Automatic annotation (TrEMBL):
Residues 48-182 form the Organic solvent tolerance-like N-terminal domain. It comes from Christiangramia aestuarii. Keywords: Signal. The lineage of its organism: Bacteria, Pseudomonadati, Bacteroidota, Flavobacteriia, Flavobacteriales. Residues 1-20 form the signal peptide. InterPro entries: OstA-like_N (IPR005653). This is OstA-like protein. Residues 531-546 have a biased composition (Acidic residues). Residues 551-578 have a biased composition (Basic and acidic residues). Residues 512-591 are annotated as: Disordered.
Length: 591
């Protein structure tokens, strides 16, 4: 156990050691040493003859051609071919430099070049605080990394973290891309960059925008949040968070995503997406929905998973598992909707296939046009590639058309194949071929029921007026009977295979999602703002100023300015740093 006096002695020794370290004298060596009391009172004038003037102070070494050394003040000013070195970590060259041994504060100007193992900093003027182990410029600087060149108006280097903080007109130039940002933190050893404020990453093939993000400048991939989007040649990807890998031409998005096709005027939404640029493909899931504008009408496709592949002129949309479609026009009078297990849509040919239904009803795709329900083993929709309006539809195998009677019952037509024809997106005519059978309610002009007609024929043509059956023509009729309602058994009023699925009908864009299981979105891991840094030019005691009285700098130069402040996480009320125009920050000599 230490006695009280031992503790006192211990602290005295430590204090003396600290003071000795703070007041350590600058050592020097010079080929020529002169005095000029008239011009430099109390100073030594040191000059090179064969060897450069040399200074050494607490681990920092300086070489120069000429110097003015105020030995009693522990301060020097160096001129010509200056080299400054701190261990193996920092090497700096400049035209002029000065160093205060009491505060360990240095300043360099004129072609300043500071080299670190991974980076080289070039600037017009640089402040260097050895106590903080930080360097700082605000008159414009350039940092050359192993992969990129970074420029900014203001820059600050933290040696203990090997980190640069760039502010104002930050530009990162790489052979593959260019980054522009309001503020960027760069870690030299890893090449990691953190972007704050409106930022872009531009290349020949893509443009990334974000207001907060991370980018690995060496691995060429990044992660972006806050108003982020990736623009490809013909697609825009947006989401709460985006991942981007340039080498693999790959991007993914999570939560509230949108993929916009700028050429085909379509978009896909959902909560997870993957985009493969070279393959021209998009994969999207979690409430996935594709919306395509067709001649001022919009076709919506919703399914568990949607894939879009092919070049812009050959786009193919595929949907899997519980597919639902809804098409509306501007008037809202001729909606069309459908369901199937999967869907295939070729935008070049205008062909859309509803196939392999397995989760609803009897496993067949179903389509509603107005009040008409059509179903079969598969359904093909054909659009006009010029007008993009619906032209026709085909129902293959076990085709069935059902229409609710205006008062009661169902009008029904069944056969092997069904062909429908559209005019202005409205169903006008249907032809059913092979082993057709019909059952329809016959009414007079006053809508009184005349009887129920059940007919067998080789083929049938049905004409519609305002979505209602107007005329039916039978070809090669085999049998047909009009029976009074009271004589027609109720249990015989449905043809074999009848399945009215009106409760599944989709009546609006919003109802596309009815019955979907609850969706729990993952929590996005954000990118926090950096901690608020201390001011570079700390207030010092009056008897211990950063600058020596013989410095050629005006003390006003060391005043912290608005331009010097960095955006930090304390500024929660603002999303971006101040964008005021920079003030002129020239280094002025004292009059």
């Amino acid at each position: 156990m230490l006695r009280p006096y031992s503790i006192i002695v211990f602290f005295l020794v430590c204090s003396i050691q600290v003071l000795a370290q703070q007041n350590q004298e600058i050592n020097y060596d010079s080929d020529r040493t002169l005095k000029n009391e008239q011009r430099y009172p109390g100073a030594l004038i040191l000059s090179k003859v064969d060897n450069q003037v040399y200074f050494d102070h607490d681990g920092i070494e300086v070489w120069c051609d000429n110097a003015v050394f105020y030995k009693n003040a522990n301060f020097f000013k160096a001129y010509g071919n200056i080299r400054m070195q701190q261990g193996d970590s920092v090497r700096m060259t400049s035209n002029y430099a000065e160093y205060n041994g009491n505060t360990e504060f240095a300043f360099a100007s004129g072609n300043v070049r500071m080299e670190r193992p991974q980076t080289t900093l070039e600037t017009d003027s640089l402040f260097f605080d050895r106590i903080k182990q930080q360097a700082y410029y605000r008159s414009g600087g350039k940092v050359t990394d192993t992969a990129s060149v970074l420029t900014s108006t203001v820059g600050r280097y933290y040696m203990d973290q090997d980190k640069y903080s760039f502010v104002n007109q930050v530009v990162v130039t790489n052979p593959e891309y260019t980054i522009n940002s309001e503020q960027l933190d760069f870690y030299s050893e890893s090449g990691h960059a953190y972007l704050y404020g409106p930022s872009t990453i531009e290349s020949e093939t893509s443009t990334v925008y974000c207001e907060r993000g991370f980018y690995d400048t060496r691995a060429d991939n990044g992660y972006f949040v806050k108003n982020s989007q990736i623009n490809y040649d013909n697609r825009i990807l947006k989401g709460d968070s985006l991942y981007f890998n340039r080498g693999k031409s790959f991007a993914s998005a999570t939560n509230n995503i949108r993929v916009i096709d700028t050429i085909n005027d379509s978009r896909v939404t959902g909560h997870y997406a993957e985009v493969y640029r070279d393959k021209d493909s998009v994969f999207i899931t979690k409430r996935a929905m594709a919306a395509s504008l067709q001649d001022r009408d919009t076709l919506f496709i919703h399914s568990d998973t949607i894939m879009i592949t092919g070049k812009p002129e050959k786009r193919i949309i595929r949907g899997y598992y519980d597919v639902r479609i809804f098409k509306e026009d501007q008037t809202g009078e001729n909606p069309m909707s459908g369901r199937s297990d999967s869907i295939y849509s070729d935008q070049k040919s205008g062909l859309t296939k509803l196939i392999n239904m397995s989760r609803f009803g009897n496993g067949k795709p179903v389509l509603w046009s107005g009040e008409n329900q059509m179903s079969g083993d598969s359904i093909h929709l054909q659009s006009n590639t010029k007008t993009e309006q619906l032209d026709s539809l085909l129902v293959f195998d076990n085709a069935f058309l059902i229409q609710k009677d205006t008062i009661e019952g169902y009008n029904q037509l069944r056969g092997k194949e069904l062909t429908g024809y559209f005019v202005d997106n409205e169903l006008q005519k249907v032809v059913i071929n092979k082993n057709t059978e019909t059952l329809n309610y016959m009414r007079n002009e006053d809508s009184d029921l005349i009887g129920i007609n059940k007919t067998l024929a080789s083929s049938v043509e049905i004409f519609f007026n305002e979505q209602q059956i107007q005329d039916i023509y039978y070809y090669n009729q085999v049998d047909g009977t009009l029976t009074p309602e009271e004589d027609f058994p109720p249990n015989a009023r449905q043809l074999q295979g009848f399945n009215w699925r009106g409760e599944e009908r989709i009546t609006s864009k919003e109802s596309l999602f009815e019955g979907d299981p609850p969706l729990k979105l993952p929590k996005i891991k954000g990118i926090p703002l950096p901690d608020e840094p201390d001011e570079f030019f700390d207030e010092r005691e009056d008897d211990d100023p950063l600058l020596n009285e013989n410095s050629r700098l005006d003390p006003k130069v060391l005043k912290n300015q608005d331009l010097d402040s960095l955006k930090t996480k304390q500024e929660v009320q603002k999303d971006s740093i101040k964008n005021d125009p920079p003030a002129t920050d020239s280094i002025k000599a004292k009059e």
